[in-house]
Amino acid sequence: MQGVDVVVSAVQGGAEVIIDGQVNLLRAAEKAGVPRWIPSDFSLGIDRLDYGDNDFADLRKKAAEAYRSSTVAPTSVLIGAFLEVLNEPWYNWVDWESGTFSYWGDGDQPVDFSTYSDTAEWTAEVALDPSTAGRTVRVAGDVLTLKELHQAMERGSGRRLEARRLGSTDDLRAEIERRKAVATDTFEYLLLQYNWAMVSGKGKLDPLENHRYPGIKPTSAEEYFRQAMS
């Protein structure tokens, strides 16, 4: 790390990676005299979530406690939800084979979405922007309600998707607690926790700062699904 201006972390994993691993990386950066670093946050508004709302967000919040006393200034880049992840069958939002789009909540809460490639571009811009030292940067490729996302999926893919409402945000919270009570693994309820943070609005990014980097023209949800399903 000698002579490095910014360290960017893009790791994923459990506590041994997100907390221990990143703190070790931070200590190495301190010894090398690195002035700035970008931790692997890249998510919804984890700074607005409370401990207990999301198990993986809790890991990042705990790691952030160690950053505050560091000589290396952190910049957290928050981007909302990755469209690539939401399009995966295991996420249980869209089933292209059966032609369904399933969601919790009333469908009217705005949610932030971004692609991997746009996130990489924003991160590069943030790394080159020393004014972001010690603060959080919030950007998003698209902001849509789930009803609007459903329409964007249909327009982009050219396919019809039947919308299925699974229940209210309170119903979702109750389902999370039910699963947690009997879970043997975090992943048995983790995706529902991300769902809740989005559809409840608690994880909404505010304020968005896309205007800081006008050279980036992010991919809309409709365009993403046009490309992904072509």
Q: What can be said about the biggest beta sheet?
A: 3 strands, parallel
The ordered string of helix (H) and strand (E) elements is EHEHEEEHEEEHEEHEHHH
Average pLDDT reading: 97
- Strand line-up in the sheet with most strands: 1-2-3
Low-confidence stretches: none
> Any idea what the shape is?
globular
Distance between the ends: 42 Å
| Number of E-type strands | 11
Helix content bin = 25-40%
How much beta, percentage-wise? 15-25%
- Radius of gyration, in angstroms, nearest whole number: 18 Å
Count of alpha/pi helices:
8
Return the structural class: alpha/beta
Provide structural commentary.
This protein is of the alpha/beta class and 230 residues long. 40% of the residues lie in helices and 16% in strands. The chain contains eight helices and eleven strands. It has helices at 15-32, 55-67, 83-86, 116-127, 146-157, 169-182, 190-199, 221-228, and strands at 6-8, 36-38, 73-74, 76-78, 81-82, 94-95, 100-104, 111-114, 136-138, 142-144, 162-167. The protein has a three-stranded parallel beta sheet with strand order 1-2-3, with no helix packed on it. Strands 5-8-10 form a three-stranded mixed beta sheet. The protein has a three-stranded mixed beta sheet with strand order 6-7-11. A hairpin with a 4-residue loop joins strand 6 (94-95) and strand 7 (100-104). The longest helix has 18 residues, at 15-32. It is globular, with a radius of gyration of 18 Å. It starts with 5 loop residues before the first strand and ends with a helix. The mean pLDDT is 97.
